[in-house]
Structure formats: structure tokens, C-alpha cells
Design goal:
Strands 3, 4, 5, 8, 9, 16 and 17 form a seven-stranded mixed β-sheet that branches. This protein has a six-stranded parallel β-sheet with strand order 12-11-10-13-14-15, sandwiched between helices. Strands 1-2 form a two-stranded antiparallel sheet. It is 28% helix and 26% strand. The protein is built from ten helices and 17 strands. The protein has two domains: 2-134 and 308-340, Alpha-Beta Complex (Quinone Oxidoreductase, Chain A, domain 1); 152-286, NAD(P)-binding Rossmann-like Domain (Rossmann fold, 3-Layer(aba) Sandwich), CATH 3.40.50.720. The chain is globular and about 60 Å long. Residues 10-339 form the Enoyl reductase (ER) domain. Belongs to the zinc-containing alcohol dehydrogenase family.
């Protein structure tokens, strides 16, 4: 089979290797779609994101996959050959309180496919059967792949900040995650104000359904948000761009008792706690991936609300073209890049 590897910094190689054999409790997945993620680029640039020993160049990246169950390992009972599945990216201990309630990403022993073990940028992969997420009827493979990291994370964020048809939300950062946020927020019925410094991404935001766009390079973002909300500020904000400026923009754009969902990765930020929290009663909520038990709710929401996740996929490649796909995605000039198998 073909698999993409990261033998050294900013280098991708596609190699031939044996099809893996599922161990006890595992299944073999024949890949149908596998999306590139910004996290993949941390390995591409030689930076580990999950505190893993990332020196093993033989680990196949990829943690947003979708495919078909091809073979069952010993003891597998929850899925069957031929099932169409997306893959939950987290591997946990299985016994801690976080794992037991489905929040695998919070497990003290959390490991991520594509970082700690072989991931999905390959023709086949093996995975524990409990990581298989059955696709509903009507969901294609590309949508299934995008419904995990992007769809699941942004659906969870929209729920955490209690979006509905009466709410206005500011989405700061209109890359793939922010674009997914626009789709999800509109599915919840909210009015969306999209903020980005890139005019092409702002045009994409409009195409995805954003009601208003703001470029903070030419406009005072929080002031414009207040103009659009009769001086009150937005009910909520979703931050998908990293750094001080986007986070502060979100906190300064929301009304009193507003809520901010923070998705963007960042090591530190300087804020004004007294004026942005204490005297506003604002809430800042961390949002990282989704509870495994919520998959049916998430996938049904996407299907029933006819949310076209494929609108945020700007390019598709075969796995044999991985050497082209990684640098293109790294350029920042794309939305989601997805490997597909016919």
C-alpha cells in the first residue's frame, strides 16, 4: 500500500509498505477520505504538538479520516466488515473519568493517531473498534472526514456558547476551522459576523453564509460589531485564529454576560481580566474536539440541516500526490485539502 511519511523537516515521501494486520480488538480500514489539518503541519515543520516523542519518522500522519471496515481483528463485535466509518482521533486509557464519559482527548494518557501511532494518510490503517464512528445514510466520505475535527469541534463550540436563532456570533479567523464555524453557526440559526484580514477568505465567508464581514486592517472590529448589534455587542464569539489580537478582539466584541469559545492554539495571551471578565461577567470556554458519545448527534445535525461541509474543501489529491498537497496546504492559500480514494 501507499503511505505518506515525514522523514525530515518539510519533506514528504510516499512509500510502499505492507498492509497492516488488525490486532485483537482492532479493525482494518480501507481509506476513502483523509483531510489535512493545521496540526499536521507541526510535524511537517518539525514541531510536536501533543508532547509526543515525534522523532519516529515512520509514523504516518493523518487524524481526520473516513473509510470502510475491510477486516476484523479477534474479538471485534461492535462493527462489521463493510461498515462506512469516520475515525475518532483519540486513544485513551479507557478507565479514567474522562474516558468513561467519552472525553478521550482529556485523558492523562491521551495519544493521537497520526502522531503517536500510524494515521490515515495511507491506503489502509488499523484502529481500535471503539474509535469507529458509523456514518449516517446520506453522508459521503469527504463530509465524514470533515465532520470529525472541523464539524465536531465547531458543533461542540456552538453548543457551548448556546447559539440559536436569536443570537449573533462573531467568528474571528476564516480559515478551515472558522469556515466550518460559519456553516455550523448558520445551522444553529445564528446571525454570523465573520472577521479576517484576508479579503479572499472574507469573500469565502460570505459564500458560506456569513451575514456580515469585517477586515480589522481597515475597520475597528469591535466598534463595527457594536454598530451591527445596536451598541450591545455580539452574544458570543468563536476564536479560530491564534494570538493576543484575535482573543482580545473577541472579548471586546461581546456584550455583558457574553460567551467566547476559544479553539485556536496559543501558548500565552495578555488580556484585561478586570474589564473583560470581572465587570462584564463574560465566559471564556475552551473547545477542543468533541465527546465521542456526541457523534450521532453531530452527524445527524449535519445531514438533517443539509450542511455542505464539502464547501470548505478547496482541493483534493490522491495519496500519491502527497508531496504536492502538503506544501500547498502550508501556503495558507487553501481551505481544507483532502486525500481521496476512488
Amino acid at each position: 500500500m501507499l503511505a505518506a511519511k515525514l522523514p525530515c523537516k518539510e519533506t514528504i515521501k510516499v512509500v510502499e509498505e505492507p498492509i497492516p494486520v488488525p490486532k485483537k480488538g482492532e479493525v482494518l480500514i480501507r481509506m476513502k477520505a483523509s483531510a489535512l489539518c493545521r496540526s499536521d503541519l507541526h510535524r511537517y515543520h518539525g514541531v510536536a504538538l501533543f508532547d509526543e516523542d515525534d522523532k519516529e519518522a515512520n509514523i504516518t500522519p493523518g487524524h481526520e479520516p473516513c473509510g470502510i471496515v475491510e477486516e476484523l481483528g479477534e474479538g471485534v463485535t461492535k462493527v462489521k466488515k463493510g461498515d462506512r466509518v469516520a475515525i475518532y482521533l483519540g486513544l485513551g486509557c479507557g478507565t479514567c473519568p474522562d474516558c468513561l464519559r467519552g472525553d478521550i482527548m482529556l485523558c492523562p494518557e491521551f495519544r493521537c493517531i497520526g502522531f503517536a501511532v500510524n494515521g490515515a494518510h495511507a491506503d489502509y490503517m488499523t484502529i481500535p473498534e471503539e474509535n469507529c464512528l458509523l456514518l449516517p445514510e446520506g453522508m459521503d466520505f469527504i463530509t465524514g472526514a470533515l465532520a470529525t475535527d472541523v464539524g465536531g469541534t465547531l458543533y461542540t463550540a456552538c453548543k457551548k456558547i448556546e447559539l440559536n436563532g436569536t443570537k449573533t456570533v462573531v467568528i474571528i479567523g476564516c480559515g478551515p476551522m472558522g469556515s466550518g464555524g460559519i456553516l455550523m453557526a448558520k445551522g444553529f440559526g445564528a446571525r454570523v459576523i465573520a472577521v479576517d484580514t484576508d479579503e479572499e477568505r472574507l469573500q469565502t465567508a460570505l459564500d458560506l453564509g456569513a451575514d456580515y464581514i469585517i477586515n480589522p486592517c481597515s475597520t475597528d472590529g469591535p466598534a463595527r460589531v457594536r454598530e451591527l448589534t445596536q451598541g450591545r455587542g455580539a452574544d458570543a464569539a468563536i476564536v479560530t485564529a491564534g494570538g493576543d489580537i484575535p482573543l482580545n478582539s473577541a472579548l471586546n466584541s461581546i456584550r455583558t454576560k457574553g460567551q467566547v469559545a476559544l479553539i485556536a492554539e496559543s501558548n500565552r495571551a495578555v488580556i484585561d481580566p478586570s474589564n473583560q471578565f470581572v465587570r462584564t461577567l463574560a465566559e471564556l470556554k475552551g473547545c477542543w474536539y468533541f465527546n465521542r458519545g456526541d457523534w450521532e448527534e453531530i452527524s445527524d445535525f449535519i445531514v438533517n440541516h443539509e450542511i455542505d461541509m464539502k464547501k470548505i474543501s478547496s482541493h483534493t489529491f490522491s495519496i500519491a500526490e502527497a508531496e504536492k498537497a502538503f506544501p500547498l496546504f502550508d501556503s495558507g492559500k487553501t481551505q481544507k485539502v483532502v486525500f481521496v480514494w476512488e
